[in-house]
Design goal:
This protein is mainly β and 152 residues long. The protein is 12% helix and 51% strand. The longest helix has 14 residues.
């Protein structure tokens, strides 16, 4: 499989892997500084680690599975309660490529994990894969944004 296909699967999986619903859980994740490790487990292994600040206003968005700039995702089946997550839906790219997603996992106020099966079609071939996200809260306070160096 080529890198563009693997990258497309990973990009499709990333919004899925941050999925949950704050309204369904009495204890949503806490705001703060979070580190997420997003992995495409198959068909090609890729890992992306990112750190981000989740403000109180962003908790619901993070827990609701925000779509990224490449994919818009909908989950007709989404159950998030008692620290457990179950979802099934579809992500669609700007170019119309569909990726089926089904996942499950768990969360606490300071941790989040989800494993998802993803499937798409590329040049008439069915391509399936697995992806996961493990996230943990690493701080109460987010670091100050870096300012770019001044131009001479």
């Amino acid at each position: 499989m080529t890198r563009p296909i693997a990258a497309a699967l990973l990009l499709a999986a990333l919004p899925v892997l941050a999925t949950s619903a704050a309204h369904a859980a009495p204890q949503a994740i806490q705001p703060g500084y979070w580190e997420s490790t997003n992995k495409l487990l198959s068909p090609i292994r890729q890992t992306k680690v990112e750190r981000r600040c989740i403000t109180p206003a962003e908790v619901d968005k993070f827990m609701a599975g925000p779509s990224n700039r490449h994919y818009k995702c909908t989950y007709p089946h989404k159950v998030i309660e008692g620290g457990r997550i179950s979802l099934k839906g579809t992500c669609v790219s700007k170019k119309g490529r569909k990726v089926a997603v089904e996942g499950s996992g768990a969360y606490t106020q300071t941790s989040f994990n989800l494993t998802a099966s993803i499937a798409t079609e590329f040049l008439g071939l069915d391509i399936a894969g697995k992806a996961s996200t493990e996230a943990r809260r690493i701080g109460d306070v987010c670091p100050a944004p870096e300012t770019p160096p001044a131009a001479n």
